[in-house]
Amino acid sequence: MLVEQYTRNLKLKKRKTKPLPRVKDEPVPMVTVTVVGEPGVGKSSIVRRFRNAGFRQEYLQTLGVERSQAVVERPSSCKKKSKTTVLRFLDTNEVFLDPSMATTIQDQVDAIHASLSNYVLIVYDVTNHASFVETKGWMKIVRSMVPVSTTLV
């Protein structure tokens, strides 16, 4: 069963990515968001919505960490030259925020990226009270492993 899910996930990942936007000699701001929470709460669905990829009816468990990005437009009231921002998502099934707990080199890289995130999005299922209760534990884990400047949402 897990092998079938992994194969299906690999096939979905083979799509081409859009090139990053460019602004006259100015880098486009990038924001890294790590998405954490209990299994099955909808972390991947939230990331898919940011990418405008629609909703998937079937449940596919995320294996490891999936990286994706979305380009979002800033409001016209924004005074910065760049009117777009790139959101880089680390969608996790198990968060590897502590590199010392990682078992493979890829897990270590994911842990470093997660610990350097600008934002950590803690997700829970509104129909599952237990997943809401677990957010307190997620906040403790995240707070102990990311800089104080990281915003928890």
From TrEMBL:
Name of the protein: Uncharacterized protein
Domain of life: Eukaryota
Keyword Transport: no
Similarity-based family: Belongs to the small GTPase superfamily. Rab family.
UniProt lineage: Eukaryota, Metazoa, Spiralia, Lophotrochozoa, Mollusca
Keyword annotations of the record: Nucleotide-binding
Any one Pfam family match given in the protein's UniProt record, by short name: Ras
Matches recorded under InterPro entries: P-loop_NTPase (IPR027417), Small_GTPase (IPR001806)
Molecular function, one GO term: GTPase activity
Annotated source species: Lymnaea stagnalis
